[in-house]
C-alpha cells in the first residue's frame, strides 16, 4: 500500500509509540501525523478518533503557547531568528495588521507560517487572552479537519496533501484560475 511505502517510518513510530508520538508530532505541527493517526484510527489500529483529536489539540496548544511566550519573553532571540527569514517576518506582520484574529485561527493551515506568525504575535504585544481564545478556536478546527481527512479519506487524502505542499504554485494557479472563472461568471450575471 502506498501509505506504508511512503510513510513507513512515521507509521512505525505511531504504531510503536501511539499517543506519545502523536503528542510530540502535534507540538511540532504535524498535519501528516494527524492524518496518519486518523487513518490508523479508521483501521482500528492503536488510535480512536476522539483520542487522536484530544491528543492533537493538547499537543498543539502546548506548542503554540511555547512559541507565543518565546516571542513575548525572548523577544531579542525571536527577532534574531526571524531576521534569518525576512520574507516570513514581513508576511506575518502584514497578515496580523490586515486580518488580526483570523491569522491566529487559520495560520496553521498555511504551510511554513506557523512559527514566524506565532513568534511575531508574541512579540507584538497582542493580548494573551485574545490570542488564547483565537488559538484554541484554530486548534479545534485544525485537529478536526486533518484527523477527519485521514479518518474518512485515508491514504488518498495524504497523497493529495503532499502533492499540494510540494507543488504550491501549481495549486495556486488552479485555485486562481477557478476564482477567475467564478468571478467572470458572476460579472456576466449582473
- The overall pLDDT average reads 83
Overall geometry comes to globular
Uncertain runs: none
Total domain units:
1
Number of helices: 10
Query: What is the share of helical residues?
Result: over 70%
Q: What's the total number of strands?
A: 0
Rg from C-alpha positions? 18 Å
Major sheet attributes: none
- Termini distance? 50 Å
Oligomer: single chain
Task: Give the amount of beta strand, in percent.
Answer: under 5%
Global structural class: mainly alpha
Describe what this molecule looks like in 3D:
- The protein has one domain.
- Helices cover 85% and strands 0% of the residues.
- The longest helix is centred in the C-terminal third of the chain and has 39 residues, at 128-166.
- With 190 residues, the chain is mostly helical.
- It is globular and about 45 Å long.
- It contains ten helices and no strands.
- Helix 3 runs antiparallel to helix 4 (49-73) and helix 4 packs across helix 9 (128-166).
